[in-house]
Amino acid sequence: MIFLIISLILTFLLTLLVSGNNLSAAVGTLIGSRIVSRFYGTLIGSLGFFAGLALEGRFLKGAAISLIPHSYFYISYAFLVSFIIFFLATIGRAPLSLTMALAGTAIGIDLRIDYSVNYNFVILMIMFWILAPVLSIIVSYITEKSIFDRDYKNVWRVAATLKILIIISSFLTAFTLGANTLGFIANVEGFNLITVIIMAVAIFLGSFFLSRGVIKRVGEEMYLMRYSNALVSLVVSSALVEIATIFSIPLSNTQTLTSSVFGVGISYKFKGIYMKSFFIIIITWIVSPLLGLLLGYLV
Fold first, then answer.
1. What is the number of structural domains in the chain?
2. Residue 294 CB contacts under 8 Å (≥ 6 apart), including other chains
3. In 10 A of CB 85, how many CB atoms?
């Protein structure tokens, strides 16, 4: 019973940090494009998180079953390790992948206790982690060059249309993050009404009070977005994460979104990308699952 309570507390805290840290993956480009204020962008993102968790969160049940035994002791430990890693990332204003940290920790625990690891699933998951960012860069680059990198007669009408599409895409991106990343947390804990209520409260608190620094890094520091940039990045990112969700594969929006931003950035001859921020994010993708694996094994 005590470990059930501890795991619920950690579920709340982890969701709090994830919502604040990863909100940038949904609305960083929206705010960076100056389409809406930070308040309304945060509202759009938090509503999308909750809708995705409530409607599609159960899709990640297969991932939870494959990666960690349903023991509240091990769940509590996995959440604690992920919380510590995520807390450090929040301080450093780096958009960390929760799915990679938590999955790495779970695998480390499995190896330590000789739990039967579903290696086929692990290999498939890692393939998604590698291929999704690459596809994000390629598809975003090609789309930006072939569709939006041209002159339009009615520029103002195109701009107005793009604004509406970006707002919709931002919500859908948040929706997929809620379904995949937050759905992964919910299924590891045990997807039920109490878990969803606890996570819903944490979503709104984290989104509004813990997101400022990371939004600035992704939405403003990394690349100054045009409307077409934001739209391409969001659509490509949300599409890939939705595909992963359907197949019950944990995949972080920070990977696909940041890679999409990079893809549209390199499509310009006279525009530049702040490479320092991009490389910091890549480092967190590599370090988080390896650190989680190590700490999980030391349980």
1. 1
2. 108
3. 26
Residue 250 backbone zone (phi > 0: left; psi -120 to 50: alpha; other: beta):
beta
Q: Which has the closest alpha carbon to 259: 245, 242, 273?
A: 273
The identity of residue 244, as a single letter, is A
Alpha-carbon span 161 to 108, nearest angstrom: 48
Query: Closest Cα to residue 2, out of 67, 71, 69?
Result: 71
What does the alpha-carbon distance between residue 80 and residue 82 come to, in Å, rounded to a whole number?
5
Distance CA 59, CA 128 (A): 16
Amino acid at 232: V
- The percent of the chain in helix, strand and coil, each rounded to the nearest 5, is 80, 0, 20
- Asked if residue 194 has pLDDT above 60, the reply is yes
pLDDT digits (tens, 9 = 90+) for 4-57: 999 999 999 999 988 987 787 788 777 776 788 889 999 999 999 999 999 999
- Cβ pair 68, 258 in contact under 8 A: no
pTM of the model: 0.88
Structural domain that includes position 176:
2-297
Half-sphere exposure of 164 (CA within 13 A, CB side): 5
How is residue 229 written in tokens?
């940039």
* Ramachandran area for residue 190 (φ above 0: left; ψ -120 to 50: alpha; else beta): left
> Comparing C-alpha atoms, which of 299, 293, 298 is closest to residue 105?
293
User: Of 63, 78, 57, 60, whose CA–CA distance to 10 is shortest?
Assistant: 78
Sort 69 into a burial class: Cβ within 10 Å, 0-12 / 13-18 / 19+: middle
Residue 185 CB neighbours (<10 A): 27
CA distances from 224 to 7, 29, 217 (A): 40, 9, 11
Contact 23, 209 (CB under 8 A): no
Residue-wise pLDDT for 274-284, tens only, equals 566 677 777 87
What single letter denotes the amino acid at residue 107?
Answer: I
Block residue for tokens 């999980």: 296
